[in-house]
Amino acid sequence: MTDQQEMDEKEFVLLAKQGDHNAFESLVYLNANYVFNLAFRLTNNHQEAEDLSQEAFIRMWKALPNFRADSRFRTWLYRIVTNLCYDRLPKLRQELASIEFDDVIDLHIPTEGHPEKSLLSQEIQTELHKVIDHLPQSYRLLITLRHLQALSYNEISEVTGQPLGTVKAGISRARKLLRERMTQYESQSG
Amino acid sequence: MKANLDDLKINEAIETYPLEPLPSGFVKNVLKKTEPRPAFDPNLIIDANTRFLFTVVPVAIILLGITTAFLIGSRDSWMGPITANYLTTMFEYSKIQLSFDPVLMMLLSIIVILLIVVTGYVALWQLTDPKRKATY
């Protein structure tokens, strides 16, 4: 999200809190894609993701007057989505809670200096997407929040209601799985 | 160096994971479900004519009530003795000591009926007010 979009979003939030339905409409347009995809990544079902994400927006509208801006609006919105996912997918919360974080590596993942051209061939990319599809739901949730929704670890901890260590461990393990598969595939391809 | 490169590759893999397109009508559905609605939409159920009826009907009930009360209370009415017996039994059970004068009964009946009908009328009038505050 650009800075301008963030500023616009803050304004829409203030107006929507006062009952401005047009401002709420703008918020829906800004966030619908991300919310739907977050739900879809977890449920893997279009209809369920649609129901879940629509319900999230309805709850958001009803709860907006009480939103106190202690956290970023998106963090609050994704918390609503995640809580709905916990209701629909009861094992998700248990899975997250069971992630042990005694062997967390330091997650100094480079985020700057994205190369201009792709580092991965199309085949490896497709292969890794399949690995992501088959990751445990808890790992998919964490890496989606980190990479698609661009939340910080603290924000992810707030959204999921899990300790920071659990968040880091989950992301670390998900990346480790991907790295192992990638290395295996690269060595097979020669 | 290799670790960094691997991390960048993983980043790329995750970030290029395809986004699902939003289902058609998604935003429209959300907006429809959150649209403010009046508490009681007169356009859907009550129009001006129907609202008029809602005022005539209670008035008719009031008149009916008064007539019934009169009949109950009237000494010459065939309903008088039956109702008087019933009321006597009721008041005995409730320990209320009253004179069961038919005229008094008639007046009490009128008052009670008036109270019920006027309260209902006022409530209905408020509910059918088009300017009533919207709820969700």
Percent in helix of chain B: 55-70%
Largest sheet: number of strands, sense, barrel closure of chain A: none
The average pLDDT score of chain A comes to 85
Q: In whole angstroms, how far apart are the ends of chain B? A: 57 Å
The average pLDDT value of chain B, as a whole number, equals 69
Order of helices and strands of chain A: HHHHHHHHH
First and last CA, distance of chain A: 39 Å
Unreliable stretches of chain A (pLDDT < 50, length at least 5) are: none
Q: How many H/I helical runs of chain A?
A: 9
Strand arrangement, largest sheet of chain B? 1-2
Shape, per Cα inertia axes of chain A: globular
The overall strand count of chain B is 2
Please state the CA-atom Rg of chain A, rounded to the nearest Å.
18 Å
Number of helices of chain B: 5
The total beta strand count of chain A reads: 0
Q: From the helix content, strand content and strand pairing of chain A, which structural class follows? A: mainly alpha
> What gross morphology of chain B would you assign?
rod-shaped
Largest interface summary: A-B, 41 and 29 residues
Series of H and E elements of chain B? HHEHHHE
Keywords:
heterodimer; A: 190 residues; mainly alpha; 9 helices; B: 136 residues; two-stranded antiparallel ribbon; 5 helices; 2 strands; 65% helix; rod-shaped
Characterization of this structure:
The complex is a heterodimer of chains A (190) and B (136). Chain A is an all-alpha fold. Chain A has 9 helices and no strands. Chain A has helices spanning 3-17, 21-43, 46-63, 73-88, 90-97, 122-133, 137-148, 153-160, 164-189. In chain A, α2 packs antiparallel against α3, α2 packs across α4 and α3 crosses α4 (73-88). The longest helix of chain A is centred in the C-terminal third of the chain and has 26 residues, at 164-189. In chain B, strands 1-2 form a two-stranded antiparallel ribbon. The longest helix of chain B has 26 residues, at 48-73. Chain B is mainly alpha-helical and 136 residues long. Chain B is built from 5 helices and 2 strands. The two termini of chain B are 57 Å apart. The mean pLDDT of chain B is 69. The A-B interface holds A 19, 21, 24-25, 28-29, 32-33, 36-37, 40, 46, 49-50, 53-54, 57-58, 61-62, 109-111, 114-115, 118-120, 124-125, 128-129, 132, 143, 147-148, 175, 178-179, 182-183 and B 4-20, 22-23, 26-27, 29-31, 33-36, 136.
